[in-house]
C-alpha cells in the first residue's frame, strides 16, 4: 500500500519521467531503424559485407552500457546534452536486432518469387519495395520489437548521466535504500516494455504474409 500511496502522491513526477522514458526509447529506436533497416537490406544483397557489419554491431552489444555512456561523454556536442548522448547510446544497442532481422527477412524471401518478379520486368528497386520488403516486414518488425524492449531496460541506466527517465527513481531509491522509490521506476518501465512488446507483436502478426 505504501508503494501505491507514493505513486499517488508523486503521480505528476511519475508521468513526467515516464514521458521522458518514452521519448528516449522512441527517438533512439527510430534512429536505429533508419540506420539498421537499410544496412540489413544492403548486407542481404551484398553478402560480403555481412560479417563485418554484423560483427561491428555485435561488438557494440558487448560494451557495458555505463562504460559506453562514459566513452561518449567527452564527445563534443553530444556530451553537452545528456539526452543526446543517451539517444545515441540506445540507438547503437538497438542496431543489432534490427540489422539481423532485416537481413534474415530479406534473405528468407523465396527466390522463386523474386525470379517471378524479374520475369515480369520489375527493376531491383521495384523488387525491393513491391516484393521483398512486404514479404519480410513481419520479420523486420520482430527485430524492432526486440530493440524496443532492450531500449526500455537500458534507458533506465541513462538516468546515471542525467538523461532523465524512470531510472531516476531507481537510482534515487537505491541511494535512499527505499523499495517504494525503486518500484516507482521499475514497475512503470516493466509495463512500458510489456506494452511495447504486445503492441509491436500484434502489428507483426497482422502484417505477416498469408
What do the pLDDT scores average to?
Answer: 88
Share of helical residues: over 70%
Q: Name the poorly predicted regions.
A: none
Helical segment tally? 9
End-to-end distance: 48 Å
Order of helices and strands: HHHHHHHHH
In terms of DSSP E residues, the strand content is under 5%
- Tell me the structural class: mainly alpha
Give me the secondary-structure topology.
Layout: H1 2-9, H2 11-45, H3 50-62, H4 65-72, H5 82-107, H6 111-119, H7 124-155, H8 167-176, H9 179-206
Q: Top keywords for this entry?
A:
single chain; 210 residues; mainly alpha; 9 helices; 80% helix; 0% strand
Description:
- With 210 residues, the chain is mainly alpha-helical.
- It has helices spanning 2-9, 11-45, 50-62, 65-72, 82-107, 111-119, 124-155, 167-176, 179-206.
- Helix 2 packs across helix 9 (179-206), helix 3 crosses helix 5 (82-107) and helix 8 runs antiparallel to helix 9 (179-206).
Summarize the structure.
By secondary structure, the chain is an all-alpha fold. Helix content is 80%, strand content 0%.
Amino acid at each position: 500500500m505504501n508503494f501505491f500511496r507514493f505513486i499517488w502522491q508523486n503521480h505528476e513526477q511519475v508521468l513526467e519521467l515516464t514521458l521522458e522514458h518514452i521519448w528516449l526509447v522512441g527517438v533512439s529506436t527510430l534512429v536505429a531503424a533508419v540506420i539498421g533497416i537499410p544496412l540489413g537490406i544492403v548486407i542481404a544483397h551484398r553478402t560480403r559485407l555481412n560479417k563485418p557489419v554484423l560483427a561491428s554491431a555485435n561488438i557494440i552489444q558487448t560494451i557495458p552500457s555505463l562504460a559506453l555512456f562514459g566513452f561518449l561523454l567527452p564527445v563534443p556536442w553530444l556530451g553537452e546534452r545528456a539526452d543526446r548522448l543517451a539517444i545515441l547510446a540506445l540507438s547503437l544497442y538497438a542496431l543489432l536486432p534490427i540489422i539481423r532481422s532485416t537481413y534474415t527477412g530479406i534473405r528468407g524471401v523465396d527466390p522463386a518469387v523474386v525470379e517471378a518478379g524479374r520475369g515480369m520486368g520489375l527493376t531491383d528497386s521495384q523488387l525491393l519495395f513491391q516484393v521483398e520488403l512486404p514479404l519480410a516486414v513481419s520479420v523486420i518488425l520482430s527485430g524492432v520489437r526486440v530493440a524496443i524492449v532492450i531500449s526500455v531496460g537500458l534507458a533506465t541506466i541513462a538516468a546515471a548521466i542525467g538523461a532523465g527517465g524512470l531510472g531516476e527513481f531507481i537510482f534515487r531509491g537505491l541511494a535512499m535504500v527505499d523499495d517504494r522509490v525503486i518500484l516507482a521506476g521499475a514497475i512503470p518501465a516493466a509495463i512500458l516494455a510489456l506494452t511495447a512488446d504486445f503492441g509491436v507483436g500484434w502489428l507483426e502478426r497482422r502484417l505477416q504474409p498469408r
